């Protein structure tokens, strides 16, 4: 089987209406239409397994809660399921709010119209909807009828419908409305449509207070949306007694343009739209009411429908239709509020930071790269916005850490940690979940447990013994020299305790100095801190970037503690631990360097190892030195994840 080389014989170009004076292109969409949800009729009739009564009941209640006031509930003459459901709905007290219209569909067949009307006995507000296809194709292929015969059928059925509904005081329904659909409208001759609708209107005799609904379907979408809009404008401007008519749209999505068609056709004068949630319906579906409503909302117009808990709506829609809502479905799809790619994440993160910095609230203007709708307005949280895979960059990773740990990583650390994350995503070939990234961070920077270093005890005092300041400090006062600090403490490394001492300008540099005595020679190159939380629960987060002496090796350390000094010491030990681990997948046991002139404060309190750390460190550095001084942390977590990947440990993710 092949596609035709020249399809022009088989498929004829759609002939658009000639409407040179069209007005709709200069109109804007600024009012909410009357919505009709036909999920329980057009949507339901297209399902492989149509809903049972219970399913319809649940779906109907959802539509009511969302705010729909006109709901097409059934095709009662189709059989017991729809007939019984309709009867149950109208006879159950309180099941239908008094401002909700129940719509039912019937073909132009007297006996079926009778059954349809009977099913509604007990309803407060009911719309009887009749249809007959008016296109040449249907006239010839399906009915074998002329225009005149079709008009006669439509008029006869409308008169009959009228006699058993609004003209019958015993119909059992408080208020009747009537809808007529020239099915296949968009493929019909426009003047014939006007003719048949005028005849139906005359037969029904609508009023301004109770207008007749002319529903103009694109039963099969056949052309571009502007052509449909022209057809609607033509109908609106050529029908008499426009004030007694509600013009309704019923677009299908065969060409994927149903939403556009519905929007342009409203600009062309339509008052009402029939569709379904997430566009379920015959073939490619009906127009999607969620998209239409939220398109209005993102233009600052409340659609009158409440999608503030869209996940619950999706749950019911999916359960009822047994068809999943596509992950890319506008607004509602699982992936639409979510960015994986680095530059998108970066822009979104900056957008949120700017919002936060400006102190903007939920109701302030939404100016956000890549996100047309604030996910919180439809009940989505911000956690799901950014997800991390191999296409992600530092912005996304930093966002995750901010969301999960409340840590504002400095730019340098973002760059380093995102490379670690990247290694994992590349290696695993999949997205990393927020919890995994959080665990990776905690582990990489030894935040839950530093496996190698433990500060057993320490004190930091002003150092009174320091000799006079060197030449560079000659200008300083005596009191500033007294700011020098002496660190004295006991540190446990790989299970062995060492007493160390060091002097520096502050707590951090005195500990760094003390560590030198163990052969751990780190210069603090960058330091950042911020608070986490507020009040009594406030903690300090400290980030330190260290350079290993005489090498390009750079390591980051992170410390979190209620006490800001302790946070910085922990951060330095976090860096020191990573420095020792270097790139080796399995940690090399620590052996302290024997005391030298520079190590005058080293006082081992436990058995010292047989070899010195310095040669070992040199060896590790020589083997692992990154050309550009790149970070080498996270290797052990990589090893563990590799193991997990081999075992095939999979991860699901929440919506
Ligand atoms: C565009 C739409 O979505 S229209 C709604 C479509 N929905 C449904 O069809 C769901 C419910 N339908 C049904 O249960 C059945 O089709 C019924 C009960 C309506 C009719 O069943 P049957 O009598 O067995 O007829 P069947 O379905 O085989 O064929 C349809 C018949 O109705 C005719 N028909 C089709 N549309 C209409 C109409 N709008 N008005 C009058 N007759 C029509 C067809 O020409 C055909 O007539 P024929 O038997 O003389 O050839
Ligand atoms: C009955 C009509 C309105 C219909 O469902 C259609 O044309 O798609």
TrEMBL record:
Any coiled-coil regions, as ranges: none
Highest taxon of the lineage: Eukaryota
Subcellular location: Mitochondrion
GO molecular function, one term: metal ion binding
Catalytic reaction equation(s): 3-methyl-2-oxobutanoate + acetyl-CoA + H2O = (2S)-2-isopropylmalate + CoA + H(+)
Keyword Transferase: yes
Residue stretches making up the Pyruvate carboxyltransferase domain: 33-311
Family: Belongs to the alpha-IPM synthase/homocitrate synthase family. LeuA type 2 subfamily.
PANTHER family found in the cross-reference section: 2-ISOPROPYLMALATE SYNTHASE (PTHR46911:SF1), PTHR46911
Name of the protein in its database record: 2-isopropylmalate synthase
Species annotation: Neohortaea acidophila
Lineage of the organism: Eukaryota, Fungi, Dikarya, Ascomycota, Pezizomycotina
């Amino acid at each position: 089987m092949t596609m035709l080389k020249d399809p022009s014989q088989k498929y004829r170009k759609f002939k658009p209406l000639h409407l040179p004076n069209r007005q709709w292109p200069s109109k804007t969409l600024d009012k909410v239409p009357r919505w009709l949800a036909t999920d329980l009729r057009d949507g339901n009739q297209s399902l492989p397994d149509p809903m049972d009564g219970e399913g319809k009941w649940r779906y109907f209640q959802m539509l009511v809660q969302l705010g729909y006031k006109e709901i097409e509930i059934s095709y009662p003459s189709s059989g017991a399921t729809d007939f019984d459901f309709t009867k149950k709905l109208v006879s159950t007290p309180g099941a239908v709010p008094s401002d909700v219209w129940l719509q039912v569909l019937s073909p132009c067949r007297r006996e079926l119209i009778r059954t349809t009307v009977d099913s509604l006995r007990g309803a407060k507000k009911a719309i009887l909807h009749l249809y007959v296809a008016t296109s040449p194709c249907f006239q010839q292929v399906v009915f074998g009828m002329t225009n005149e015969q079709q008009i006669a059928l439509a008029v006869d059925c409308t008169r009959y419908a009228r006699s058993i509904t609004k003209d019958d005081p015993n119909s059992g329904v408080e208020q009747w409305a009537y809808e007529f659909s020239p099915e296949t409208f968009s493929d019909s001759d426009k003047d014939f449509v006007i003719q048949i609708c005028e005849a139906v209107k005359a037969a029904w005799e609508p009023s301004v207070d109770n207008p007749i609904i002319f529903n103009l379907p694109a039963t099969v979408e056949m052309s571009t949306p502007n052509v449909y809009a022209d057809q609607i404008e033509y109908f609106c401007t050529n029908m008499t007694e426009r004030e007694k008519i509600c013009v309704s749209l019923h677009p299908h999505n065969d060409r994927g343009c149903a939403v556009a068609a519905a929007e342009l056709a409203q600009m062309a004068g339509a008052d009402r739209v029939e569709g379904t949630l997430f566009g379920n319906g015959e073939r490619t579906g009906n127009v999607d009411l969620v998209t239409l409503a939220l398109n209005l909302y993102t233009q600052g117009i409340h659609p009158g429908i409440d999608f503030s808990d869209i996940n619950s709506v999706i749950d019911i829609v999916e359960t009822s239709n047994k068809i999943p809502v596509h992950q890319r479905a506008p607004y509602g799809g699982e992936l639409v509020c979510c960015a994986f790619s680095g530059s998108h994440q970066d822009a979104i993160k900056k957008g949120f930071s700017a919002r936060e910095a400006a102190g903007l609230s939920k109701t302030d203007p939404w100016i956000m790269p890549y996100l047309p709708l604030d996910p919180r307005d439809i009940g989505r949280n911000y956690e799901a916005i950014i997800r991390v895979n191999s296409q992600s960059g530092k912005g996304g990773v930093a966002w995750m850490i901010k969301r999960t740990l409340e840590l504002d990583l400095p730019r340098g650390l973002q760059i380093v940690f995102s490379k670690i994350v990247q290694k994992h995503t590349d290696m695993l070939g999949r997205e990393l979940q927020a919890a995994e990234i959080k665990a990776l961070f905690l582990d990489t920077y030894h935040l839950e447990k530093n496996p190698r270093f433990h500060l057993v005890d320490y004190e930091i005092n002003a150092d009174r013994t320091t000799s006079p300041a060197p030449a560079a400090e000659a200008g300083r006062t005596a009191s500033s020299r007294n700011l020098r600090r002496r660190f004295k403490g006991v540190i446990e490394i790989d299970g062995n305790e060492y007493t160390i001492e060091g002097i520096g300008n502050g707590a951090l540099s005195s500990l760094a100095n003390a560590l030198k005595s163990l052969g751990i020679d780190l210069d603090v190159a960058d330091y950042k801190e911020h608070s986490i939380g507020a009040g009594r629960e406030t903690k300090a987060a400290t980030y330190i970037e260290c350079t290993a002496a005489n090498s390009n090796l750079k390591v980051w350390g992170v410390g979190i503690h209620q006490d800001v000094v302790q946070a910085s010491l922990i951060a330095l030990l976090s860096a020191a631990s990573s420095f020792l681990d270097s790139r080796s997948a399995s940690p090399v046991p620590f052996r302290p360097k024997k005391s030298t002139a520079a190590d005058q404060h080293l006082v081992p309190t436990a058995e010292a190892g047989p070899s010195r750390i310095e040669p070992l460190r040199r060896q590790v550095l020589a083997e692992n030195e990154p050309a550009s001084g790149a970070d080498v942390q996270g290797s052990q977590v990589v090893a563990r994840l590799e193991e997990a990947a081999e075992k095939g440990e999979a991860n699901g993710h929440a919506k």
